[in-house]
Structures are given as structure tokens and as C-alpha cells.
Design brief:
Blueprint (H helix, E strand, L loop, with lengths): L1 E5 L8 E5 L9 E10 L2 H8 L13 E9 L11 E4 L9 E5 L4 E2 L6 H21 L7 E4 L5 H13 L2 E6 L2 H10 L3 E4 L5 H8 L5 E6 L6 H5 L2 E9 L22 E3 L3 H4 L3 H17 L6 E6 L3 H9 L6 E5 L1
Helix pairs in contact: 2-3, 2-8, 3-4
Bound molecules: NADPH dihydro-nicotinamide-adenine-dinucleotide phosphate.
NADPH dihydro-nicotinamide-adenine-dinucleotide phosphate binds next to helix 1, helix 2 and helix 3.
């Protein structure tokens, strides 16, 4: 099969399109013919070596396709099933393995394109708004990078719940997209002081939760946007990791809560995975969650997809096609 291989860590150029042996499913695993592959920030962290992987490796964890073989003991899926997952091993390939209990069977009305696009960003927006800080009607929330993949979904879910969403973005074009998705107000955080803007927009009342995927450039100032006992949900670091800080700062700012969640811990059991994925796919089917697929890039040009995501040129999901 053809796959992207990382033989040494580094920039996008280290991703080589190579021919390697087809994987063979072990007990409990399924082999999937990939139709669409999700590109995520975490793939770039592995490519750069920030997160360690044994070399050489095939990057990627997300995608959707059709089961073509199963290992012994697999009952959750069968050959011919259309499935999606965020737990493939080496998703940037024509064929990829996953543990069968990490696969989500797609309903008839959801294609593999939507399935691949919905999984990681959709379940992230779902767990952030239902479990990390359960958003209620009337709550005020701040969503950083509101025109990004997760950001656009958070705006939609916030509006659906009846919360007031303020979104930060870097350009006017992105502001328009965030508005369309459900942000009542947007802040150009590359030009405006977002703390002052949040205070102005809320009449000094501040927000109940900040969903922060940007990290280094937004984290500390975000703490000044929160109500007493507000929730700081730092779920990413698109601008770089947050520098070490003294947890005592959470006290004078209002006995704030801080969490650094990751999707894996919110889909820990097959039951929880089925619940979160099921909700997201239901919303996609009934139109209450609209997926914004920014671009599809042929697998051979995976480096281009990484450059676009790192260069802030995307708004929504980036998919690779094998
Ligand atoms: P996005 O589509 O949000 O892309 C990143 C966006 O971040 C950019 O478009 C840009 O928006 C903003 N940004 C701000 N500063 C920078 C910078 N220096 N370099 C690049 N981008 C910057 O990506 P995703 O929706 O796929 O993911 C968002 C973040 O959430 C990632 O950090 C990812 O790792 C994390 N994540 C975490 C999960 C978890 O469970 N913890 C699960 C899924 C994603 P703008 O131009 O408007 O500033």
C-alpha cells in the first residue's frame, strides 16, 4: 500500500509518500480501507518530534472508510462495515489498523467524508460543552480561534444550547464565519485587546467559561475574562505551550477552575465513545451541526495540508484523500 512515512522528525517536508507492506490485523483489530483521513494538530506534534513516536512511522489517527479484514475475536464490526475512528494507527495511508472497539459504525445517512470530518473535532466540541463545562442557556462563553475546526463547532453548539458566544479570530473573513456559526460577537485578537473587549461586550460581567485551544498567546489573559469560580478549559496549544506558572494566580482572579482535558480521557470506555460519537452523528444528520470541510488534499500532498493548518490558512476540517 501507499502511505506517508516519517523517517526523521522535522518540518512538513519530512513526510514521504512511500510503498510499504499492507498491515495485518491482530486479535481484536480491524483493517480499514481509508477513504478520508483527518488532519489534526497532534499529527504535527508527532511529525516535529514534540510528541515521541518510534521512527519510522506513519502519522495520523483519524479517518473513515470500509472494513476489509478483521482479526480473531472481533465482533464489534465486520468486513464491509463503514466506520470512522480517532484511534487509527498510521491513518495517513490507504489501509490502517484500529482496535475494533475504537471504531464507530457510520449510520446509512452519514458518508465516510462527513464521518471522518466529524469525529475528532465533533467529539471534542461535544465533550467540552457537555462534560468539561456543561454549557447552559444564558451562560456566556469565550471561544478562541472561533473560525477553526473545533471553534466553528463550539459556536454552533453554544448557539444551539442558548449560550452567548464571544469568539476570537485573526481576520475579518474568519469573524464572518464565526458569526455565521453562532458567535454573537467576535474580537480580532491579533489587533484588539481581547480582555478589554470581553469586559465591554459583557458590561463587565465576564464569561462563565473560556474554551482555549490557542495556549501560549491567550492563556494568562483569558483568566481575566472569567467570572468568580469560572472555568478555564485549556484544550490546545496552537500558538505554543503555556509557560509554567504559579497556580496561586487562580485565587485572586476568582477561585478559578483550570482543566487541561484531552479527548482520549473523555471517550475512555466503548460506552462513552458510542454516546459521544452517536450524539455528534445525530446532530450532523439532523442538520443541527454543520461540518465545515475547508479542503481535501490528496494524501501524496500531506505536507501541503500541514503547511496550511500551521499557517492559520484553514477554517474548518482538513481531509486527506488516499
Ligand atoms: P484550528 O482549525 O483551530 O486551527 C488552529 C487555529 O488556531 C488557527 O486557524 C488560528 O486561528 C489559531 N492560532 C492562533 N495562533 C496560532 C499560531 N501561532 N499558529 C497556528 N494557529 C494559530 O485547529 P483544530 O480545530 O483542529 O484544533 C484546535 C486546537 O485544539 C489544536 O491546538 C488542537 O491540538 C487542539 N485539540 C485538542 C483536543 C483535545 O481533546 N484536547 C482535540 C482536538 C483538538 P486564527 O487565525 O483565527 O487565530
Amino acid at each position: 500500500m501507499r502511505a506517508i512515512r516519517v523517517n526523521e522528525t522535522g518540518g512538513p517536508e519530512v513526510m514521504q509518500y512511500e510503498t510499504i507492506d499492507d498491515p495485518v490485523p491482530a486479535a481484536g483489530e480491524a483493517l480499514v480501507q481509508m477513504e478520508f483521513i483527518g488532519v489534526n494538530f497532534i499529527d504535527m506534534y508527532h511529525r516535529k518530534g514534540l510528541y515521541k513516536s518510534a521512527l519510522p512511522f506513519t502519522p495520523g489517527t483519524e479517518g473513515a472508510g470500509t472494513v476489509v479484514a478483521v482479526g480473531s475475536g472481533v465482533t464489534a464490526v465486520k468486513v464491509g462495515d463503514r466506520v470512522a475512528s480517532t484511534n487509527f494507527v498510521g491513518a495517513y495511508a490507504q489501509l490502517a489498523l484500529a482496535k475494533s472497539d475504537r471504531l464507530v459504525r457510520l449510520p446509512e445517512s452519514v458518508g465516510t467524508r462527513e464521518g471522518a470530518a466529524a469525529m475528532l473535532q465533533g467529539m471534542t466540541a461535544q465533550y467540552l460543552t457537555t462534560s468539561v463545562y456543561p454549557l447552559k442557556a444564558g451562560d456566556r462563553c469565550l471561544v478562541h480561534a472561533a473560525a477553526g475546526g473545533v471553534g466553528l463547532l463550539l459556536c454552533q453548539l453554544g448557539r444551539r444550547i442558548g449560550a452567548h458566544v464571544i469568539g476570537t479570530v485573526s481576520t475579518e473573513e474568519k469573524a464572518a464565519l464565526a458569526h455565521q456559526a453562532g458567535a454573537e460577537a467576535t474580537i480580532l485578537y491579533t489587533k484588539q485587546d481581547f480582555v478589554a473587549e470581553v469586559l465591554r461586550l459583557t458590561g463587565g460581567a465576564k464569561v462563565h467559561v473560556v474554551y482555549d485551544s490557542v495556549g501560549a498567546t491567550t492563556f494568562l489573559k483569558s483568566l481575566d475574562c472569567l467570572v468568580v469560580r469560572g472555568m478555564m478549559a485549556l484544550f490546545g496549544q496552537s500558538s505554543g505551550p503555556v509557560a509554567p506558572f504559579d497556580p496561586n494566580i487562580l485565587n485572586p482572579k476568582g477561585s478559578l477552575f483550570l482543566t487541561r482535558p484531552t479527548l482520549g480521557h473523555y471517550v475512555h470506555t466503548p460506552e462513552e465513545l458510542a454516546w459521544r460519537a452517536g450524539e455528534v452523528l445525530t446532530w450532523v444528520r439532523d442538520g443541527s451541526l454543520v461540518l465545515n470541510i475547508d479542503r481535501e488534499v490528496p494524501l501524496v500532498h500531506a505536507a501541503e495540508a500541514h503547511r496550511a493548518l500551521e499557517g492559520r490558512r484553514t477554517t474548518g476540517k482538513v481531509l486527506l484523500t488516499p
